[in-house]
What we know:
Helices cover 39% and strands 23% of the residues. The chain is α/β, with parallel strands linked by helices. It folds into two domains: 3-118 and 355-366, Enolase-like, N-terminal domain (Enolase-like, domain 1, 2-Layer Sandwich), CATH 3.30.390.10; 122-342, TIM Barrel, CATH 3.20.20.120. The protein has an eight-stranded parallel beta sheet with strand order 4-5-6-7-8-9-10-11. Strand 1 and strand 2 form a beta hairpin. The longest helix is centred in the first third of the chain and has 19 residues, at 98-116.
Amino acid sequence: MRIRRLEAFTARLPLSPGFSHFTGRVTALEEVFVRLTADDGQAGWGEVRGNMSYFSGESPASIVAALRDYLAPLVVGCPLRERGAAIAQFDRALAGNAAAKAVLDIALHDLAARAAGVPLYRWLGGRRADRVAGSECLFYGPADEAAAQAQAYVAQGFRILKVRVGLEPFALDVARVRAVREAVGDAIALAVDANQAWTVKQAIGRIHALERFGLDAVEQPVAARDLTGMAEVARAVDTPLMADESLYSLEDAMTLVRLGAVGYFHVKLVKAGGLHRARQLIALAEAARLGYVLGQMNEGMLATAAAAHLALASAPKYTELYGTDGIVADPTPGHVYESGALVVPEGPGLGVVPDERRLEPAFARTA
Length: 367
């Protein structure tokens, strides 16, 4: 079986009500989709979020260009059984551009599992746990709203919540974390995510101030490239740190391990470059006896399903796959959480397919 055709699409997915991030407010997701069609007519799909220049430097236009000019020639005409060799060439052909590599990698995995006639998680080796916990995130906003939203998530079955911090003055962070902890009680695991907002000195002092609320982890307290600073913070506080923006490549992971900088990896397909690289990060975390969380950017259901299948075939401490929250009309139907736990479609491959009528064609390449 050979890959005969690659098609790229884009789609704008409005959010209601949207969410606030440290760089501003996001009111829509701008997604990039890829469809790979084999010579027997079977197709595999991939999806990534494109409007995340603040996070990775990529955009929908750059992802499409990377696919068209560099990556598509590596897979169109390639035998599906040799997809590993094609994926290995991605990094040689193009530095960075993890999202472009991820969307193509996801489509390759979807097609391979569909060709085998099994759900992707089974193709990856099957379940490693009967239940994989989910989590939800409390974005920036007033303390009373955070507390009410936290109670709503707990009522839905979630037992792990994350609070976005990094506001000024710091008293606003304290008020929000206190309000959430008081609203949900001590039985709920609570993490905070500073999204690189603090200096090393600030991080140490502010984490100490927040630890009284019983934190499970502190995510990305300092700048992404300040790995030695992350290690300094880790040595000074009791709560384990989690690397997100600091963790893209295997080289990043090995440096974090060597420095003793973190207790957790936050693995995302869009950062790692797809399932192939994400599984390598997971293997490294397990070898180093570190915990890991499988998460994502805010993305559509197809991208979410890919991460969910990987999570089911892995052993994460929990998952952060709330990426479809707030999408007004997702071209891909489905959901991955029920009663606070992970569920995945049982059909072949990802088990979901987008409605092509909702997508805008970007380009196509045929062998």
